[in-house]
Automatic annotation (TrEMBL):
Keywords: Membrane, Signal, Transmembrane, Transmembrane helix. It comes from the Bacteria. This is Peptidase. The keyword Transmembrane applies. Residues 1-26 form the signal peptide. Residues 162-198 are annotated as: Disordered. The chain crosses the membrane at residues 214-234.
Length: 240
């Protein structure tokens, strides 16, 4: 099927750029430069584009379907956008997963991303500047329709949003740099007396500290020994 896709992309009359078949082979696109590619049903189509802080990317894809006489039922399509870490970004507007009826000649998909931010907290999922990936594919299609030729028109626009609404810079690192080995000047150093402390028991450190645990352990051992002796006295045989 990938060979069929490559042949269609290189066929005469195929306008615009090609489309990749994975994240690694995603074809780069630019804003306000429409793309038109020839493909086949059942394949995954990938594109990539850069986004900067303050932009609001808007994607529109129109799929010209194969002739209705060659199709065997309805088709479901979807368009998805991922950031540079392959995290799926939500679409705040646009028909992301429409269904084409059997008699439809084309289907239009859309995805509006949130405004790209210049910074975000580590736990946030806000879109940040960098490379974004677009994936277009059919999610439900009759098996008999796999491999039918179609045409895709993709348009990317990047409107300028409110750059002062949620933008900013970090005033200080989130984790301050520590300096091991330094001592604050205002922390008093404890004085050491040259004479021996009469309460110092370090000389008898080999003597274990007695506690309730020692008492119960010793008592249990004694009771066990007594019980053993009593039992032995009842069970031993007297000599005649």
């Amino acid at each position: 099927m990938l060979t069929h896709l490559a042949a269609l992309l290189l066929a005469p009359g195929a306008a615009g750029l090609s489309a990749g078949t994975s994240f690694l082979t995603a074809a780069p696109i630019e804003a306000d430069r429409p793309v038109q590619v020839a493909a086949v049903t059942g394949d995954y189509l990938y594109w990539s584009f850069p986004a900067t802080a303050g932009q609001q990317p808007h994607l529109t894809a129109t799929v010209t379907l194969p002739p209705a006489a060659d199709r065997h039922g309805a088709q479901a399509w979807t368009i998805e956008v991922f950031d540079g870490l392959r995290r799926r970004q939500p679409c705040v507007a646009g028909e992301q997963s429409p269904i084409a009826e059997p008699a439809a000649t084309d289907i239009t998909l859309g995805c509006d991303l949130r405004q790209i931010r210049s910074w975000a907290e580590p736990s946030d999922q806000d879109p940040l500047p960098g490379t974004y990936y677009v994936r277009l594919t059919s999610t439900e299609i009759p098996e008999q329709d796999l491999g039918l030729p179609l045409k895709v028109d993709l348009t990317l626009t990047a409107e300028k949003g409110d750059t002062g609404a949620d933008q900013g810079t970090l005033a200080a690192p989130l984790n301050p740099v520590s300096r091991p080995g330094t001592v604050s000047a205002d922390v008093p150093t404890p004085a050491v007396s040259p004479s021996a402390d009469p309460d110092d028991t370090s000389a008898f450190s080999f003597v274990p500290e007695f506690s309730s645990r020692w008492i119960w352990t010793t008592t249990g051992g004694v009771l066990a020994a007594v019980a053993g002796l009593v039992g032995f006295s009842f069970t031993r045989r007297r000599r005649p």
